[in-house]
Amino acid sequence: MAVGVRHCTVRFMELESSSLMKCSLSSSSLYRKQSVHFSNSFSQRYNQCCSLSMNGCQGYSRAPIGTVETRTLPAVSSPALAMECLNSAISDMIKSDSPPYNSGIIRLEVPIEEQIEALEWLHAQNHLLLPRCFFSGRRVASEMCINGASSHSKLVSVAGVGSAVFFTHVRPFSLDDWRAIRRFLSKKCPLIRAYGAIRFDATANIASEWSAFGSFYFMVPQVEFDELEGSSIIAATIAWDNAASWTYQRAIDALQATIWQLSSVLITVQKKNPHSHILASTHVPGKASWDIAVKRALQIISRNDPVLIKVVLARSTRVVTAANIDPLTWLACLKVEGENAYQFCLQPPHSPAFIGNTPEQLFHRDRLSICSEALAGTRARGGSELLDLKIEQDLLSSAKDHNEFAIVRECIRRRLGAVCSSVLIEPKKAIRKFTRVQHLYARLRGRLQAEDDEFKILSSVHPTPAVCGYPTEDARAFISETEMFDRGMYAGPVGWFGGEESEFAVGIRSALVEKGLGALIYAGTGIVEGSDSSLEWEELELKTSQFTKLMKLEAPLLARGQSRIINQNQKGLSCRFIFIR
């Protein structure tokens, strides 16, 4: 298979770092930093995660990677033939001498002359106990030249299993961590990307359900399926670094072990509501506690000299269902109604899957061009065209919603302006409609002074007032004192880094799904002057409805203010009710 293979190779030069200050995605000194406590089980799971492949953040060296390559094999007609080609190419690499580099990353890819849904390919690998990821833009990604081809292909979605190299730590995501990821990326190999997410608040205690994610988690997939417009690509990636005790031979052995487990028989993902029966459902906070929190926020906001103008309070809803929830089935159902949203799935080894259908872009970088957006104010869609228009006009004319929206837009404009030569806002205020909701919306564009400003952008625009509040540190402190659950990656950046492009969404409208344990569904709403706690609670219900519509209560219906708790033992199921205070 060596004949006809196209090579794209680049040797990395060390990043210029003298002018960049060391900084991290953590709170400033104005915010009281919480101590982070980890259980033994957390340490075991974290170390087990780290042992599966190479953690690029451990023993990070500023020395450039020896080689970054993409090798493209001839196109074939089916995934089965593509897998045969990959197997053959990997066998040839095993028989050949090791590359003369102490470190490197090589991507082998086989084009497929058919567009196949990446999510279906990923669903076919459900039997694998490997880390996995999925990312689909709410729009087709920017045109890019695929490995020097004369025609332009558009990337629709990406699915991956296994990690050629991953990046995670319990400390906040830092400039050095960003550099560690960038070592393995190149403009000449645009489809070598690191997919992942960062915690909303890296200084907060990490709950057990989020332990495998650390403070951040990114992965370059070991085996990847790229869905393009009109075609597909299946790829395998090998990464090694002798300094990290992960040799070329270990990397290629690990890849071969993963390849042998893959299925090339695609399974159509169910895109109709599975309607799992809900056995238990519990909100944190409950309605009474929610009313108290909103009242307290409004008291601070309404002071003559308020330290808080806006704060975003969130709710976690744990649901336990009669049957296991398949996160990919949920994601497929969300994808049907998510034309204008990002869909994502991130699942480190031995952990729940973090999935979402978020409408909000954090930023998209294409070389020096950067864009972001402001999204705030929420209304339901109308049942008719006339009613929908009336609701739209009500949202556009609402002083309360305009105030909330203006805070978000102006804050993002200032943050972009700090690292961009200029910032353009167009449109300044419009409506963006989704299947179930509609929001106020503005688009912001700027131009970076240097591509290395990407980390500065990420660390400055997150968290936006749309998911935290304003001023940021005061809002974050209020959230930390008030919320009784760990947001984890909810409302944090989720997306990917690439050599010439990067794109991140805001991880809202999301859930954490674990086999046998049901799901944690997250939603938040902005509290500003004029907010009403009951109306904000209804907004939470509206935002979580994209998940709850996939389930139904087990008869008899639960009484208001109650939560049904199921205790399972060897003799069967027993039920009791508790009141949520």
The largest β sheet comes out as:
24 strands, mixed
Mean pLDDT over the full residue set: 82
| Structure class | alpha+beta
Distance between the termini: 66 Å
Radius of gyration, in angstroms, nearest whole number? 24 Å
Poorly predicted residue ranges: 10-51, 140-152, 554-581
By DSSP, the count of extended strands is 28
Helix percent reads 25-40%
Q: How many H/I helical runs?
A: 12
Shape: globular
Which range does the strand content fall in? 25-35%
GO molecular function: isochorismate synthase activity
Pfam families: Chorismate_bind
GO biological process, one term: defense response
Subcellular location: Plastid, Chloroplast
Keyword list:
single chain; 581 residues; alpha+beta; 24-stranded mixed beta sheet; two-stranded antiparallel sheet; 12 helices; 26% helix; globular; disordered C terminus; chloroplast
What can you tell me about this protein's structure?
This protein is an alpha+beta fold and 581 residues long. It contains twelve helices and 28 strands. It has helices at residues 40-51, 79-95, 118-123, 175-182, 248-261, 287-301, 327-336, 385-397, 399-417, 454-461, 472-482, 533-548; strands spanning 6-10, 54-55, 67-72, 103-112, 132-136, 144-145, 152-153, 155-169, 194-198, 216-228, 231-241, 276-284, 310-321, 342-347, 353-358, 361-366, 369-380, 420-425, 430-433, 437-448, 469-470, 493-497, 501-506, 510-514, 518-527, 551-553, 562-569, 572-579. The strands form three sheets. It has a 24-stranded mixed β-sheet that branches. It has a two-stranded antiparallel sheet with strand order 6-7. A two-stranded antiparallel ribbon has the order 27-28. The chain is globular and about 75 Å long. The chain starts with 5 loop residues before the first strand and ends with a strand.
